[in-house]
Amino acid sequence: MNSSNTVAAELGLRLVVPEHDGVPLTASLHYRAEDPYAIRMAFHVGMDEPVEWIFARDLLAGGMTEPAGDGDVRVWPADTPTGQRVLNISLSSPFGQAHFEAPLTALAGFLLRTFQVIPAGREGEFINLDGELDAILRRD
Q: 53: Cβ–Cβ under 8 A, 6 or more apart, which residues?
């Protein structure tokens, strides 16, 4: 894979815990041109393997300025009591719920780099539909 078609970053987050200061943790962000609509975020929460979620790139981008998403994934911008701009990320699954705060500036920088790889609205040009259909049809 050509590294110019991949964007990766490490991001310091805070797990929001009611009535506590929160728990700092690290997340790895990955974007690949081969999967142009998705951003993979792996949360390193002290287990052997990180917990990975896949987000729509448009969802994260939209949540930078206003609340976005519903259901299992919701994101919205906010200011912390110390005045830092953060992106709140709320995740829900049958296994539980989690609420994270990510530094808005760092996440915006990562998203900007993904849009330099594939501009918004042009994602469909980078999907190999024939290859995807072949892969689906072979999985009988």
A: 40, 41, 43, 73, 91
Asked: is 3-137 a CATH 2.30.31.20 domain? The reply is yes
Query: Measured between alpha carbons, how far is residue 119 from residues 13, 39, 50, 75 in Å?
Result: 26, 14, 29, 21
What are the residue ranges spanned by the domains of the chain? 3-137
Task: Classify residue 37 by its DSSP letter.
Answer: T
Residue range 110-137, pLDDT digits in tens? 999 999 988 876 666 666 666 656 667 7
CA pair distance 34, 56, nearest whole angstrom: 14
Q: Which value, to the nearest 10 degrees, does the dihedral of the CA atoms of residues 96, 100, 106, 110 take?
A: 20
